[in-house]
Fold Coproporphyrinogen III oxidase.
Amino acid sequence: MVDDPQQLEDLAAHAHEAHVVVVGGGIAGLVAALECAKVGVRVTVLEASDRLGGLVRAADLAGLTLDVGAESFATRGGHVRALVEEVRLGDDIVTPAPAGAWIAGLPGAAPLPKGGVLGIPASPFAEDVRAVIGWNGAWRAYLDRLRPVLTIGQERSLGRLVRGRMGERVLERLVAPVTSGVYSADPDDIDVELAAPGLSAALTRAGSLSGAVLQLARARTEAPGSAVEGVRGGMSRLVDALAARLADFGVEIRLDTPVEAIEGVSDAAKDSPRWRIRTAEGDLSSDQVVVAASESAARALLRPLIGLADRPGPAPRVHIVTLVLDSPELDAAPRGSGVLTVPGTHRAKALTHATAKWAWLSEIVRAQHPHRHVVRVSFGSQAEPPATDGLDLEAATAMAVTEAATLLGVALDGSQVVGSDIARYEQTLPGAAIGQRDAAAAVRARLAELTGIVAVGAWLSGTGLAQVVPDARAQALAVRRAALFGAPPTAD
Ligand SMILES: Cc1cc2nc3c(=O)[nH]c(=O)nc-3n(C[C@H](O)[C@H](O)[C@H](O)COP(=O)(O)OP(=O)(O)OC[C@H]3O[C@@H](n4cnc5c(N)ncnc54)[C@H](O)[C@@H]3O)c2cc1C
């Protein structure tokens, strides 16, 4: 702790002499920039596209500003809430309506049973569970109670664990829709301990998977609050608020500026810039670099520095078609907050009935149009390219309307649509994918051998704001420490 006034003056002067360049203006880059800028470090953010926010993105549709990328955040750890409060949006934090989601493709549709963990039921014979997996599925799942826990041992793959203990029906109809909808991933590729921390230990204690789920679910209901929260007006407000804070701190933001290369300055004298950042508009010099670009761009930029391989497999591609439509049949929210599908049964992967999920949105929309709704239909996952591939907006909208009608169980046609949008994304594998954490640690270990460069973002922290935000913060703390005190950045 520095408290000598002269030392503080020197520190402030030194802080502004140091220059940090952040490559990429998604949430990870903006959070890293804020951490550095708020102690007086000079920061420049270089963003390839014409807007900030990356996968947190809004579109203006039928007079509404709507999230067409991330639309909520997990409350886990309280990190995103803390950030939202820091940028003065704390009073606008909202929780979704408690309506819950449905599963479609059973055949037919049924509510997602309550009290489960990643779709795994606590009680196979509960009526809402039987409505999804039938009596046969329930009896097979019940065998979990009778089997010794050691026949499975420590199983790392969520899919193999559920299949072995509770059978295919539970896996296909309950767990796969959740992992596909939430992680865009197959349950076989999900690491149990990362996706459901504590489940393996509870399995050993309880002696069965359903018993373990019951223990975890009990612990969860004792914790206050909901699993996700949002921001009144949409998550894109977080991006705008972060940009405003960065402007307050004098951060320079350059849009439409893709970084083409990052080069170490090999003959850099002590206290002179270590890095040259190449862009089409010219080069920048910096003492520290935070690489916050999307995965494929980040890999391309880092490859010459640390010999990074290509990503291990194709990235899951996801398309979100947002529909604003007039439909009195949707007023009663026939499928709660939305629908997850059993993989392979529908062209859409999932649907969110946004006006049923978010009261603030419904209030705005219905103030002028009593039967107007916002529905987001998602296509594509790790295993399957989006069915909307190659379609223009008109054709994708038509497909989304057909899928929405089936999933919501109401008649809909194109004439009811008053606005639509398609957003196309390339995602990274979820942090809970088997091997993902080790791969990220290996990248970080190689980067730690260099001085003055760190990498942040979902491809290293895991997808989801609750993972991206604290990770970017931790990495940026190391960068700013180095900028202030000259120590090399080590996030540990
Ligand atoms: C459809 C969808 C819905 C989602 N919903 C949720 C949700 O509800 N809740 C949740 O928590 N998470 C959600 N996620 C995940 C979450 O949005 C991401 O994990 C998170 O936003 C990733 O942030 P990031 O900064 O790591 O990456 P990005 O947002 O991808 O940002 C990277 C930035 O780098 C820029 N860039 C790329 N190349 C260069 C270059 N060469 N030079 C300079 N800049 C470059 C890009 O343009 C981009 O702005 C969702 C994701 C998707 C795709």
Summary: The radius of gyration is 24 Å. The mean pLDDT is 90. The chain has three domains: 5-54+234-313+432-485, 113-222, 316-426. Residues 23-29, 46-49, 54-56, 69-74, 258-259, 292-294, 297, 318, 320, 425, 427, 457-458, 463-466, 468 surround flavin-adenine dinucleotide (CB under 6 Å).
